[in-house]
């Protein structure tokens, strides 16, 4: 676009040379391409998680995939290969996971959220709510929240800057015309006012459970 306008307005042409030619380059120049996820290899059969460096071994100088060592209830090993050989354009091969679980550090996310202007103050507004006695208007009025104000006679939620989260698990189809299910683990900061609590910008994305199907039995490994 800028190249075409530059033929008419020479001043714009000098700017067009500096402007990224693609969305990928734009993200890279602005620093938006940084992947902060911690990634784990997922056993495609039983969903056990591994660090990538623990998933291969050297055999005659060549990297070979290991098999899943998870023990089932019958005390038999899963035995599913954790990595697969992928052909490269150069003609060689490289080991890649069948599935990858992306985890986002809760502590790092909370640290970033607390640096937002006014965020800490919003988390303390629940202490000054004016709600008639006996009225249940939010989680703050329930027994669980009140019981956790003090733990072992020491202030817990009653103390400032102590936070309570609600963990949610949700599976959905990201594509309209394909049967492909992806799961997400996300957390909601309950200290926030109800009007702020479920906004996309205040939800903590914890992890992405890979597809194409939901785990059949449980999600304990991801938790």
Keywords:
single chain; 223 residues; alpha+beta; 3 domains; 6-stranded antiparallel β-sheet; 12 strands
**Poorly predicted regions:** 1-6
Write down the secondary-structure element order. Answer: HHHEEEEEEEHHHEEEEHE
CA radius of gyration: 25 Å
Total number of strands:
12
Beta-strand percent range: 25-35%
**Secondary-structure class:** alpha+beta
Strand order of the largest sheet: 2-1-7-12-11-10
Helix content: 10-25%
| Count of the separate structural domains | 3
Give structural notes:
- The protein folds into three domains: 1-34, no CATH class; 39-99, no CATH class; 104-209, no CATH class.
- 20% of the residues lie in helices and 25% in strands.
- It is built from seven helices and twelve strands.
- A hairpin with a 5-residue loop joins strand 5 and strand 6 (93-97).
- The radius of gyration is 25 Å and the shape is elongated.
- It starts with a helix and ends in a 14-residue tail after the last strand.
- The relative contact order is 0.11.
List the helices and strands and how they pair.
Elements: H1 2-6, H2 10-18, H3 23-30, E1 38-42, E2 49-50, E3 56-59, E4 62-65, E5 83-87, E6 93-97, E7 99-103, H4 106-114, H5 119-123, H6 143-147, E8 150-151, E9 154-155, E10 165-172, E11 182-189, H7 194-197, E12 204-209
Antiparallel strand pairs: 1-2, 1-7, 3-4, 5-6, 7-12, 8-9, 10-11, 11-12
